[in-house]
Model the fold of this input.
Amino acid sequence: MSRKRIVILGHMDKPGVAEQIERLQPWLAQRAEVLAVSPANQPLADDAKAADLCVVFGGDGTLLAAARALAETGIPLLGVNLGKLGFLAEFTVEQMQQHFADILAGRVKPTERMMLEARLANCQAHAFSATAVNDVAIHAGPPHRMIDLAVAHGGRRVSQYLGDGLVVSTPTGSTAHNLSLGGPILQPTLDAIVITPVGPHTLSLRPIVLSSDKPITITASRVNAGSDVSIDGQAATGLCDGDTIEITRADRTVRIIPCPGRSFFDTLTDKLHWGRGPEYRNKDNPLA
Done:
């Protein structure tokens, strides 16, 4: 039976990441054929795109960058958290080593997460196309006046968004920028899109969940000189009055290896303290 092929990506500028990869590379090479070791923010060689698995060392941002870089390959991603939160990069080094044989053998199945394609084509100054794992965000930017965005879904008007911008999120990204704005949490394997306003200039405009089978079109009716569109908080382009951003469900999904024995709700509870009760001073008698 042929050995599984892996690539190793890392946030090499983050303290401790390069050292951890150097320490673990011999251990990984004993168990799989290592095709490449590369910074996550650099293009991957074509021959490395034939890998069976990508092991990503860093944090959630590193995993997002790797997911976009490998979007066309379908290679599953195993995230080893060496960052702060580790919501997407679920594994500790010890958990990765514990489950690595089962992952290579296919006994741990990746979860399929939808992605978005964002395209800005009607502006010569800001022509742009990118894949988003978490979200597509429009920010008002300097001089920080309220901006005006017209949103449609499948050609039908949704609403006029007056405020500081909006975030269009995947279910995976629902626990990121969307959550901080008061948007809903979605199970990450759903096929749905959340639109969440940023600082809306109305009491009635609230987050909305839409089907992913129709394009979302955002027209910049009025924006600022510094307004922009950002992808996963990592890639961005400017925005002019009259620009139109079309957002569609990507043809491919991102495949993320889950940590065995942990559910999405376990991660919500452990990482974000979701559903936990208050911390009473007298735990034996909360009414005291």
Notes: The chain is about 15% helix and 35% strand. Residues 116-251 form a domain with the Tumour Suppressor Smad4 fold (CATH 2.60.200.30). The chain has a mean pLDDT of 92. The two ends are 65 Å apart (CA to CA).
